[in-house]
Amino acid sequence: MADAIDRGDVHAVGDRVRALDGSPSIELRGAVLRVNPCIPRNWPAFEVTYKHGSSRYRIAVENPHAVCRGIIRASLDGRDISVSPCDIALADDGSYHYAKITLG
């Protein structure tokens, strides 16, 4: 399979999450990752690394206001992207991409 969430590359707060496979928080829709986190309020953050062909996408979700859901800011490679819906367009360009999602 060309696209995969590598269990070894999925990180979360404490021991609460080991893998997000099948999670409604991050959903693959063709060549787009739709990010819609729904997490416990006491989670300050979590990260996922997603491999798409020869590219990797590191998605960091921060929860500074201790909420369960609701994206207030999103960026990909330092550029703001839409928060509703929060879609990350995937490119198989061999690069390492960084998405930062802030809940609030």
Any descriptors?
104 residues; mainly beta; Maltose phosphorylase, domain 3; elongated; disordered N terminus
Question: Which SSEs are present, and which pair or pack?
Answer:
Blueprint: E1 3-5, E2 11-12, E3 26-29, E4 32-35, E5 45-52, E6 55-62, E7 71-76, E8 79-80, E9 86-89, E10 96-103
Parallel strand pairs: 6-10
Antiparallel strand pairs: 1-5, 2-5, 3-4, 4-9, 5-6, 7-8, 7-10
A few lines on this structure:
The chain has 104 residues and is mainly beta. It has strands at residues 3-5, 11-12, 26-29, 32-35, 45-52, 55-62, 71-76, 79-80, 86-89, 96-103.
Write a structural description.
The protein has 104 residues and is mostly beta strands. It has one domain (3-103): Sandwich (Maltose phosphorylase, domain 3). Helix content is 0%, strand content 47%. It has strands spanning 3-5, 11-12, 26-29, 32-35, 45-52, 55-62, 71-76, 79-80, 86-89, 96-103. Residues 1-22 have low confidence and may be disordered.
